[in-house]
Design goal:
about 450 residues, alpha/beta, six-stranded mixed sheet, four-stranded antiparallel sheet, about 35% helix, globular
């Protein structure tokens, strides 16, 4: 197929793809404990149907121990052609507080060319981008195709890592496209060449057998919530830099966003300062970051006059590509224990780890992708980092060291992934899918 034919084929499929994405986003496929499992399995079933619609001759769901099924598809390579593995995930983050959504999280809404809903960008856009790209070939693929769409990346991606380690031949490929990232801004063609790793755990503080009346006991009874607040506050200095020994600041060799761009994208309020030191690229892509992502304490609305006996926090550590997530978690836990007041009892549970990644940017597949993205976006792509983690990537590199891994997609920094009002710009979906299809055609002819 010529580039013109590929572009026309993707454009012609866009209305159908938007309808399918809308139906997929409407499925609340939250694979976190405590959420219903049936919608996650429904999303797997729909993903399987979508892959079958592309002309792949072999599509099936594959059980993943301790997790939800992955959806797998493949087509053999033409003689002498390389094989490309395509990755995305169909599970999504929880919606969070529904009051913060302008439209319901699982009632996808199209407004001015943007689809709003949880998972519209992260990462159901990746699923649909693969489907769009593959359909353009009408079952006559220029390269060997393997597709793996996992079902629990947001909560416990390391389970698919274990599956890959046990079944390397199933996923072996010459190039791997990970459609779980995107551009800094809409239309700013970029390839993610650096990923931070992840360490996350829950810290629990206990002080009393039961919570007690704050009037009768407050002032002498140790408050578990106050102790936890003191411990968490010790993680950063007054400037917002990390105080934990062993977690130094890193350097990213490339350009990051300007402060004005970052403030606008992050929605930083007027008069509120950014935190940390060094360039924004250093802080976002090459350094450690510690975030308290959840607290188990009484809500303000449900508060009673009591000294709390127990309090919990979920702590997430982003780890630069060269760092070790387990070591980082140990360093943070040790720091918290050293800053535990009043002899309170402290426990750490639910540890989750994911490694970072740093790409080699000079290979044959990357050259083909550069040409494809320049045509699809009208500009050559630039290298960027990503502060988020994709646990599978490091495992793929370990298992297939000769493969090139290419991270790009339809998301952008304004997409509000993992936040209320997540959205996808549909034109960005078209460009990303077009770039992927052009890449497959180009890579197959080299």
């Amino acid at each position: 197929m010529t580039p013109d034919q590929i572009e026309n084929a993707v454009a012609a499929e866009m209305p159908r793809a938007v309808d399918e994405l809308t139906r997929l986003v409407a499925i609340p496929s939250v694979a976190f404990p405590g959420h219903p499992e049936e919608p996650v399995r429904a999303a797997a079933t729909m993903t399987e149907e979508l892959l079958r619609s592309t002309g792949l001759p072999h599509v099936r769901q594959i059980p993943v121990e301790g997790s939800f099924p992955a959806v797998y598809g493949e087509a053999p390579a033409p003689p002498g052609a390389p094989t490309v593995l395509l990755y995305a995930h169909y599970d999504v983050q929880p919606a969070g507080d529904p009051a913060l959504w302008r439209t319901p999280a699982f009632e996808p809404t199209l407004i001015d060319g943007q689809l709003y809903g949880r998972g519209a960008a992260d990462d159901k856009s990746g699923v649909i981008a693969h489907v769009l790209a593959l359909r353009s070939f009408q079952g006559r693929f220029p390269v060997g195709i393997k597709v793996i769409i996992e079902g629990q990346e947001e909560y416990a991606g390391e389970r698919l890592e274990e599956f890959v380690e046990r079944n390397p031949e199933l996923l072996r490929a010459d190039a791997i496209v990970v459609a779980d990232t995107g551009n800094p801004s809409v239309g700013d063609a970029s390839v993610t060449t650096s990923l931070r790793g992840l360490a996350a755990f829950t810290v629990e503080v206990r002080t009393l057998r039961d919570s007690v009346h704050s009037g009768s006991f407050g002032g002498a009874a140790p408050d578990a919530l106050a102790a936890l607040i003191r411990m968490l506050a010790s993680l950063h200095d007054e400037n917002g830099d990390i105080r934990v020994p062993g977690l130094p600041r890193g350097v990213f060799l490339g350009d990051g966003p300007t402060e004005e761009e970052f403030r606008a994208t992050a929605g930083v309020l007027d008069g509120v300062s950014l935190v940390g030191s060094g360039s924004l690229a250093d802080r976002l892509w090459a350094s450690y970051a510690i975030t308290v992502t959840g607290l188990d304490v009484p809500t303000v609305q449900g508060a009673i006059n009591a000294v709390q006996s127990v309090a919990r926090a979920r702590v997430t550590v982003r780890v630069p590509p060269a760092g070790d997530p387990k070591t980082a978690a140990d360093d943070v836990v040790e720091h918290l224990r050293r800053h535990t007041p009043w002899g309170v009892q402290v426990g750490m549970t639910d540890l989750v780890l994911g490694s970072g990644y740093l790409a080699d940017t000079g290979g044959r597949a990357r050259a083909a992708l550069n040409r494809a993205m320049e045509r699809a976006f009208g500009r050559a792509p630039r290298d960027i980092g990503a502060g988020g983690s994709i646990p599978l990537v490091a495992t793929l590199i370990k298992q297939f060291p000769a493969a090139e891994i290419l991270l790009f997609g339809a998301e952008d920094d304004g997409a509000s992934i993992h936040a209320p009002n997540e959205r996808l710009v549909l034109e960005e979906l078209r460009r990303a899918a077009t770039a992927e299809a052009l890449f497959l055609a180009d890579y197959g002819t080299l």
